[in-house]
Design goal:
Blueprint lengths: L1 H30 L4 H8 L15 H21 L5 H17 L1 H6 L4 H12 L1 H6 L2 H14 L4 H14 L5 H16 L1
Helix pairs in contact: 1-2, 1-3, 2-4, 3-6, 4-8, 8-9, 8-10
Length: 187
Amino acid sequence: RWKSEAGTKKGIARWLRITQKWVQRTEAELEAGADPGALISNTLREVPSGHFTKRLVTDSEWQDLEEEAAIVCSILAAHVGAMSTTQLATAVDTLGVLATHNTVFAIYLPSAAALLEAINTYSLDPVTLRRFTGKQLSRFVWGLAKLGVCNERLIQLTGRRIIEHMAQFSTQDISMTLWGLAKIRTE
């Protein structure tokens, strides 16, 4: 048990350090005028995965982890509207991976109302929906499913776009899309 506690402490420190660096660098580059969509979608994968056994994490450590997750989500929420559909699909896909491979995000993301609302609002815009390509739709739906997002209107409109782009889909795109839609429907 001691080893797992020590490993958890090191993992927490590493995760916090890397995530804080991402936040600091992202905020500095945004202040300097960087394109928010490109910056966020290209660097979000730097936020590390991390499975932490909650019973081995102190309340204070858990609060620190959740605060960093909240900061990452607030940065994303503030800049979703500046993203292209490629950047949005990449960001949602990455968030889906984080929700799967990161204990903190798995617990925190479903309650990140501002971020999920920003994604829904921007995605429901008819102009945004028309810009999605088949591959982007596939990644987007897969990410939404991983996040547990189930906005009926968004799924209906996205489903219509998927039908329009079905001829462009690779076999992987089809399987990811079908899996995503099935997962969303079961939640």
